[in-house]
Amino acid sequence: MPDWLALYYDRPIELTHGEGRHVWDADGNRYLDFFGGILTTMTAHALPEVTKAVADQAGRIIHSSTLYLNRPMVELAERVAALSGIPDARVFFTTSGTEANDTALLLATTYRRSNQVLSMRNSYHGRSFATVSITGNRSWSPTSLSPLQTYYVHGAVRHRGPFAALSDADFTDAALADLEDVLGQARGQVAALIAEPVQGVGGFTSPPDGLYGAFREVLDRHGILWISDEVQTGWGRTGEHFWGWQAHAQNGPPDILTFAKGIGNGMSIGGVVARGEIMNCLDSNSISTFGGSPVTMAAGLANLGYLLEHDLQGNARRVGGLLLERLRAVTAGVPAVREVRGRGLMAGIELTQPGTDQADPEAAAAVLEAARAGGLLLGKGGGYNTSVLRIAPPLSLTVAEAEEGAEILAQALRTLD
Question: Which end of the chain is more exposed for a tag (fewer CB within 10 A), N or C?
């Protein structure tokens, strides 16, 4: 495998099985999973409803491609379209968030007849050639070559950068002024703005509620589409809303929505939702060989059904609120902790060199190792310096598990003293 393949830990873990919110490695060590395979294990490891759906479907037919219809694909498309909030919604399934965002860019640039795209600073949208070119995060953007002309806009990082000291209202006004200024630099019409409601790889940063809704007024004036990248924020993870865009809904839903990760509970599902006129703007054939696979669609249907029937969005709000309180309590007085932020079961702990705003990726790596030794798996992220601990457990997390994880993390942070 390539040298650039990212692996966690000085001694990488081989995970062999899981159950609920726990996983085991090849040495028999048990861990409380606070990262869920990068937010993919949304409901629980080895959820019986999902494993049964996969096994039952695999016993009938595993693959057919989107050249043929299959009932699970149609049923899941209907459910996602209804939940999306987008009028006259059409759904196209892919195998990943990267492919979903690639498809959204194809739709937007074709519909608008422009290759100019607005993206947010500190963003991440995937690892394909096109999505790397709109990623505003140096650590995940290995080339400056691009099929698109990308303009980067301020506003997605609330507590860093030139607007950090402003009130929420003034921050939004400053970001709007920046957006207008950037549009003044663009040559001709811009196709779309793509934005994560909460930046994932960027360290779980987010703007004040309503900012993208305010952006929408400017975008509409110019005919620019809004793409909401919900790969990490969708399906109720933020607790308050089912989709991240709903925190910015004062001027309606996005034109295009992309999703992936949690809907498959570990199975490879991604997708795009768009208004019919946008989705249907392509004038050539297009398929996804593995998108809409009968097995992955069966898993997605079972997983979505479980999430809705057990109100896991409500659990993310309740247990996530408790977890954030506990994280703020156990990090109080820790000099290396600059900020604890997040919503629902999506929390970030930013580490800096004590007494400064200088990121400390070595400290983040050390806490990650110490937490593993204590039986807790975490994630990392945060701009180009990877100094944010990312916490995103399955949405079925219990209060007792939230308390347990916070205590292990507290012990791991003490190792920095």
Answer: N
CA–CA distance, 197 with 206 (Å, rounded to integer): 6
In 3-state terms, what secondary structure has residue 380?
strand
The DSSP secondary-structure symbol of 352 reads B
pLDDT of residue 254: 98
Which pLDDT tens digit goes with each residue over 346-386?
999 999 999 899 999 999 999 999 999 999 999 999 987 88
The answer to whether the pTM exceeds 0.85 is yes
- The 3-state DSSP class for residue 258 equals strand
Angle subtended at Cα 366 by Cα 33 and Cα 13, rounded to the nearest 5 degrees = 45
Q: What letter does residue 239 receive in the DSSP assignment?
A: S
Closest CA to 143 of 129, 125, 122, 153: 129
Per the DSSP assignment, residues forming a β-bridge with 153 are 120
Closest CA to 182 of 151, 220, 155, 211: 151
Strand partners, 149: 116
Interval 149-173: pLDDT, tens: 999 999 999 999 999 999 999 999 9
In the chain, the percentage of residues whose pLDDT exceeds 70 is 100
